[in-house]
Automatic annotation (TrEMBL):
Name recorded for this polypeptide: AAA+ ATPase domain-containing protein
Transmembrane regions: 355-376
Biased composition, class Basic and acidic residues, residue ranges: 859-871, 890-902
GO CC, one annotated term: m-AAA complex
Catalytic activity: ATP + H2O = ADP + phosphate + H(+)
Topology of the protein relative to the lipid bilayer: Multi-pass membrane protein
Amino acid sequence: MFRTSTRQLARCSRLPLRPLARPAVRAARFPQTAPAATLLSTRYNSTNSPRPDGENEPPNQPPKKQDDAGKSNQPTPPPRREPPPGFVRLTQEEYAELTSILALLPSKQQRAELEDIFKDATEVGVPVELRDILRSKMNGQLTMRDALRIPRIAYQIASKIDAYERSQKGNVPDFTSNKPGEDKEAGQDRQQGTEGEQHQQQHQQQQQRQQQQQQSGNQQGQKKQGGGKQQPPRRFDGSDALTWAISAALLYPFYSMFFSSETSREITWQELRKNFLDRGLVQKLVVADKRVRVELNRDAVRAMYPDSQAANPNFVYYFSIGSVDAFERRLDEAQNELGIPPNERIPVSYAQEGMAANLIMAFGPTIMIVGLLAWLSRRAGTMGGGSSGMFGFGKSRAKMFNHDAAVKVKFSDVAGMDEAKTEIMEFVSFLRTPERFQRLGAKIPRGAILSGPPGTGKTLLAKATAGESQVPFYTVSGSEFVEMFVGVGASRVRDLFATARKNAPCIIFIDEIDAIGKSRSEGGGFRGGGNDEREATLNQILTEMDGFNTTEQVVVLAGTNRPDILDKALMRPGRFDRHIHIDRPTMKGRKDIFKVHLQKVLTKEDMDYLTGRLAALTPGFAGADIANAVNEAALIAARANASSVEMIHFEQAIERVVGGLERKSLVLSPEEKRTVAYHEAGHAICGWYFRWADPLLKVSIIPRGQGALGYAQYLPSSDAYLMNTNQLMDRMAMTLGGRVSEELHFPTVTTGASDDFKKVTRMATTMVTQWGMSEKLGPLHYENDQNQLHKPFAEATAQAIDAEVRRIVDQAYKQCKDLLVAKKKEIGIVAEELLRKEMLTRDDLVRLLGPREWPEKEEFSKFFDNRHGEKSAPPPFPTENTDESSTLLDEDKKTPPTEGER
Ligand SMILES: Nc1ncnc2c1ncn2[C@@H]1O[C@H](COP(=O)(O)OP(=O)(O)OP(=O)(O)O)[C@@H](O)[C@H]1O
C-alpha cells in the first residue's frame, strides 16, 4: 500500500519509534564514544583499499577524506579480520534495505545514531539472522516475529563491538570468541602473535581518537579516554529489550497497514515524466482511489540510478490525480508524444486499496466509543459488586436470603403482635403445604401489606415468615426501584419478579412501599407534579401481581408507615389482599418484647417484676425503642463495670432514650434555676391534686436533651384507649401549671411556657374540631389540612372554632389558677426542696404533701410503690402519652412527649 506519505508514517510511528531507537543509542554511543570513534577511523583506513569481493563496502559511506600528510605517513592498514562465528558482512543491497528500515525513523538524529551503530557493525559484521531478516524484507515477507528479533540482534552486535574494541586496545578478549571465559586468553595469544601490527594499530587509534575528540569538543570525554580507564561494556538491559519489543509490536500493525514492508515517496506528474516515463523505466501504473502507484522496471532503474532509492525493489513512487479520466488522457498524450506504439503502451490497472484503512477511518471513532462504554460498563459492574454494570441498571437490587444463608428469625422472636402473627401464619402454611388449600379450591392471598408506625416490627415479621416457611426471602426497599433513568424502576420490578418465580416458593418483601406505591392521583395536583417513573414502577408491580397464577407460590409482603397514601389499586383483592396493621405494643406486648430482648443481656433481676416495671415505664415505646433501651442499659452497666445489668441501669437507659442526655455543662443562674423550680413545682402540684391527672413519677430541674431545663414526669394510666373531657381538662390545666406558678411567684413571666401553650392549644383544637367536645360546634369533624390553601369550612365556622378553643383554654387556665392560688404554700415547699435536691420522686412528694387523695391504678402501685425497695434511681421518665391510639395526635405517638418540659 502506498496511501500514506513518509511524513504520516513518521507521525504515527513517532511514539513507538523513539523508545525503540533510544536504548540502542544510549547503550552503544555514550559509554563508548572514543572507542567507537577509533573503530570508525580504523574502518575508513581499512576500507580504503578496494576489496575484490566488494562485499564490505558500506552504502552511503561518507566521502573518504585523505589529507596529503596522512597519505604519506599512513601506516599499512591492518589486514581485515574475519567476522566472528555466526556473523556475516552485508552486501550493498542488504545495507540498502537496512537503510530503508532506518529511514522510517522520525527524527534525523535518531536515524544518524542508529546508522552509526550499524556502521560500527561493518567491521564486526552482523548476525546471520539480521541478514535473513533483511532478505525476507526484500522479498516482501517481513513478519511480526522478524521485527521482534531486532532487539536481540542489536544486543549481539553491541556486545561484539565492545569485545572488538577491547581487543583493539590489547589485553582484552578476542571478539571472535563466543565464550566469555575464553576471551581473555585468546586475546592475549592474538596480541603476542601480532605485536607489530598491534603496535601500529594502537598508534593509529590514538591519532584518530585525538582527531575525533577535537571534532566533538567533548572535553570530559577526552579526559576520561586519556586517562586510559577501562569503560564498562555496552549494555542493553532487559527493560530496553522489552521497550524494543513492545514498541515493535505496537508499530508493526501501523507499519504493515500503511506500507506493507515498502517505503514510498510522492512525486509530481512532471517528475514521473522526466525521470521515469521518458526514459522507459515505467513497467506498470496502478490506480487506486485518487492515487497512482508507479511500478518500475527495477533492473533498468538500478542500472540507470545505482545509488537511488528507486533501485530498492520495495521502494514505491506514487502521484496523485484529479480524476481517472484526466489521468488517462494525460497518459495517452504523453505516450503519443513519446511515440510508444499501442501494443507496447504502459499497462494501467485499477485496484481497490486501503479498504482496511478506509473502514478504520469510517468506523474507528464509533468502535472506540462503543469499546470505551463497554469497558466502563464492565468496570462499573465489577466495582458495584457483580451486577452487570451500566447495563445492569435494570437489574433488581433485592437482597436474597435463604435458609442456608440467613433468615434465622422465627415467630418466637417476634413478640407482642399475636393477631398479626396469626394472620401471617396462613402464608406460612400455604408455602409449606399448598396442596391443603388448593385441594379445596381456595385461592391463597397474593400478598399482605404490613402497616404501622416505625420500629413496630414489620420487617421482623416478614423475616420471621420467611424463616418459618424455610423458603428464599427477597428483601428490597421501595426507594431502590427509583432511579434517575426512566424505565429502570419498572425493569427492576420485572427482574425481581422473574427471579422470584424462578426460585418459587419464595417471599418478596418490599419495605417502604409508599416510595413507589403512592396514590397516582396524588402526584398530579398542586403538590409537585406527576411522576411518570414512579407510576410506571407502580403499574409494573400491579401487572406482575396480576400475572401470578394461583398456583405460583410467590408471596409478596410490603411494609409501610403510611398505608393511607397508598394507591387503591394496590390494596384491591388479588393484589395485597391482606392489610395487617401493627400498632405500638400494649403493656403486655411491651412486656413480651422486653422478655425477648432481655434474653440477650446478663441480668439477675427477677424477670417477671423487671419486665412488668419496664413495660409500665415505657408506654408508647415501639419494639425498636425497647430493643434500643435494653441495649443502652447493657452499655450503661458496662460503663459502670457492673457484674450484671440492674434495674437502675434499665431506668437510666429509658430516661436517656426518652429525655435525651443530661446536659451537665448547662449552668443556669440562681435566678433562672429558681424560676425553673417554681415552674416545675406548679406542674407537680397540679398533677398531685387534680383527680384525673396522670400519676406523677418524678420532677427534676436538671437540664436534659434539647432545650428542656426541667421536667415533670407522669405515668399515664396504661392501655387506656379513651380519654374523657375531664381527663383532657385536667391534663390541660396541669400543662398550664408552670406558667400560672410563675405568675404567682414572680413579678414577671418567662418564655419557658411556650411549648406548654402549644400542647394546650393543640389539645383544645382537637377537642373542638375532631372529638366533638364543643357544644357550640357540635359533633362535626373539621379536617384542617395544612397542605390545602383553603380551609374546608366557612369563615364563620373558623371564627367559631377559634372562639371555642379560646373558651376551653381559658377554662383550663382558670381551673389551674384556682388550684395553685389555693396551694401556693405547697408550691413553695416543693420548689425549695427541688432547689436543694434538683430531683424529687413520687416518694418525696408523699413525704412533703402527704399521700395523694385519689386512688392509683393497681398496675401503677404494683410497680411504683417501692415494695421492692428500689433505689429510687432514676425515677422513670415517662410521659403524658398513653397507649391509646385514637385519642392523641399523631405527633405524640412516636416519642412520648414529656409534660412540663420547658
Ligand atoms: N415485636 C417485636 N418483637 C421483638 N423485637 C422487635 C419487635 N418489633 C421490633 N423489634 C425490634 O426492632 C427492630 C426493628 O424492627 P423492624 O425493622 O422490623 O421495624 P419496622 O416496623 O420494619 O420499621 P420501619 O417501619 O422503620 O421499617 C427489630 O430488629 C427488633 O430488634
